[in-house]
Amino acid sequence: MRNLLSMEHLSNEEVMQIIERAAQFEDGEMTRLEKSYNVANLFFEPSTRTKTSFEMAERKVGCTVIPFDADFSSALKGETMYDTVKTLEMIGMDAVVIRAKEDEYYNELLEGINVAVINAGDGAGQHPSQSLLDLYTIHKEFSSFEGLKVTIVGDISHSRVAKSNATALKRLGVNVRFLCPPEWAGDFEAYHSWDGLIEDSDVIMLLRIQHERHVINKSFSKESYHEQYGLTFELEAKMKKNAIIMHPAPVNRDVEIVSELVECERSRIFDQVRNGVFVRMAILETLLEGRSI
Ligand code: CP
């Protein structure tokens, strides 16, 4: 693996290798990296957990984190993504972690760039490190994927998490169902009511409503969304005994989920954040070690 761009590019074997390595990191194993690689995090869209989690993972595996502030970079003077990354390569970077608002921004980096590129989210495209930490969280809970039922709920068409997870989970043998308002289904066949979905789901995966990617819709009401698609106490009470609740976060409390359920017993929302550090350590080690051979 030379870059991490999309879950479409990862085999089940590569996914399982990352999961197994992340579990070793969680158990306290140290990294195998022999040198201190230089890594920069280029976030052209806001982030709390992905950016901080990558920085924590980079430090834990012994990388040197080179500060990059997108808001004060020459991208604001019109420099292209290619020229930005090539410049960082010439300065001595070994890897760059990038979040950008353009879908598939990474296509312009496939030729001529020799550093590892890790996609930390491209527009409404893919979010592979989030997907891998979601898969790690599910595997930690159920020890396998085959035959699980996962219901992904919410803003499907604007969600890079939904797309990355749908690709990976289906390939791993999971029965993936989608629940959303008709206008947010995109290319997916979706249900528009919870009927029959809550009782047999092993995982309810809620998604954030991505207002920043919507054309202004004056008829949208948080209250009516919550009433039809939000996870309420009543729905939670119908979940299977061992079923879990996930959400990539940030959460719109009392919209996607009742605020009090965010940290309920079956919620793994903050565990996902913790798991993300181990998974990103595994991603960094796999990419940097793979390139150094
Ligand atoms: N889940 C996720 O990508 O969160 P951030 O936008 O805070 O990084």
UniProtKB/TrEMBL annotation:
Origin organism lineage: Bacteria, Bacillati, Bacillota, Bacilli, Bacillales
Enzymatic reactions: carbamoyl phosphate + L-aspartate = N-carbamoyl-L-aspartate + phosphate + H(+)
Residue span(s) of domain Aspartate/ornithine carbamoyltransferase carbamoyl-P binding: 2-139
InterPro entries: Asp/Orn_carbamoyltranf_P-bd, Asp/Orn_carbamoylTrfase, Asp/Orn_carbamoylTrfase_sf, Asp_carbamoyltransf, Asp_carbamoyltransf_Asp/Orn-bd
Pathway noted in the entry: Pyrimidine metabolism; UMP biosynthesis via de novo pathway; (S)-dihydroorotate from bicarbonate: step 2/3
Keyword Transferase listed: yes
Assigned protein family: Belongs to the aspartate/ornithine carbamoyltransferase superfamily. ATCase family.
Protein name: Aspartate carbamoyltransferase
Gene: pyrB
EC number: 2.1.3.2
An example Gene Ontology biological process: 'de novo' pyrimidine nucleobase biosynthetic process
Binding site for carbamoyl phosphate: 49-50, 99, 127, 130, 249-250
Organism of derivation: Ureibacillus chungkukjangi
Domain of life: Bacteria
Membrane-spanning parts: none
Subunit structure: Heterododecamer (2C3:3R2) of six catalytic PyrB chains organized as two trimers (C3), and six regulatory PyrI chains organized as three dimers (R2).
Domain Aspartate/ornithine carbamoyltransferase Asp/Orn-binding: 146-286
